[in-house]
Amino acid sequence: MWRIITLADLIFQVFTWILIARFLLSWMPNVDYYHPVIRFIYNVTDWVVRPFRGIIPPFGAIDFSPIIMFFALRLGYSLLRQLLVMIMLW
Asked: pLDDT tens across 9-39, in order?
């Protein structure tokens, strides 16, 4: 069971870095969105980013939805991890 938790930690960390890459790419003006790596990054993360864009509108040129999304993902993963640990110890 510890291997499941370790695997979940690894997947969450990789996904977090992919999300960070997506937001850094959004600040670059000359990005080729048809490049296979960039398309992969957007395809993998789009299902998480899209709902948060609809919830929080941008404030001027600043988009606060990624910050809220990271907090929500971290909270959700923390709860999931605690649930897995409780199931394992039970």
From this structure: 999 999 999 998 988 887 788 889 899 999 9
Token digits of residue 82: 């605690």
Secondary structure tally for the chain: helices H, strands E: 3, 0
Task: Let me know if 57 is exposed, middle or buried by CB neighbors in 10 A (0-12, 13-18, 19+).
Answer: exposed
Q: Encode 13-41 in three state secondary structure.
A: HHHHHHHHHHHHHHCCCCCCCCCHHHHHH
Q: Give the single-character DSSP code of 90.
A: -
Contacts of residues 60-69 at CB distance under 8 Å and 24 or more positions apart, as own/partner, are 66/19, 66/23, 69/19
User: pLDDT tens digits for 44-58?
Assistant: 988 888 888 777 777
Domains held by the chain: number = 1
The domain containing residue 32 runs over which residues?
2-89
Helix 65-89, helix 2-26: angle, nearest 10: 180
